[in-house]
Amino acid sequence: MLSNYKVLKCYLFIVAYCLYVGGESIEYEDCGSKSKVIWVQVDPCDDRFNCTLTKGSKAEFSVRFMPKNMILDFKAIAYIQIGDGWPMYKFPMAAGCETVREVCNVDDGEEATYRTPFVVPNELTSRFMMAVTPNRTENFPNTILRTMFLVALIWRQQRDSVTLDRSDKVNVQFVLLDQDEQTLLCLRMSGRVGDPK
Question: What's the CA gap between 25 and 119, in Å, rounded?
């Protein structure tokens, strides 16, 4: 029979392990989520208030939430912004029940987890930026976004790419839409991108 001390020690080991492998819960701003957000994690993350991700490295983004209705299908959209004052660019994210099964067919009052791996880009080429610029977002009307995008391209015309620098703040807006195009999650986060050691 196990003593209370051994049970407590085993329990603490399991909790410590789960916290270690689970990534770092990060600070975020809710921008209109209809679901209850439980936590948001980025793994690896060195500072929950200002994560620094390494260029070219693999990372994982996870969000645990409680939807108000059953999710039968979904879309995930992320917009990234290098520094402040520049337009946001669409970033590819895993979507659909076939890809991320932990989100779909969750009953009312049960928790769901959206989890997706991604590679931190070394740079954003102007061709990449043109290809993924969103046609519209809830925050910017089309004309303002297009104008800002053209100004950014003209300003950066001399360079073929925008290099992600450690001094550049990276803002991210993550949106999860259900099968009816209703907003399940809308989260804003920020961090930095660093060079490999």
Answer: 19
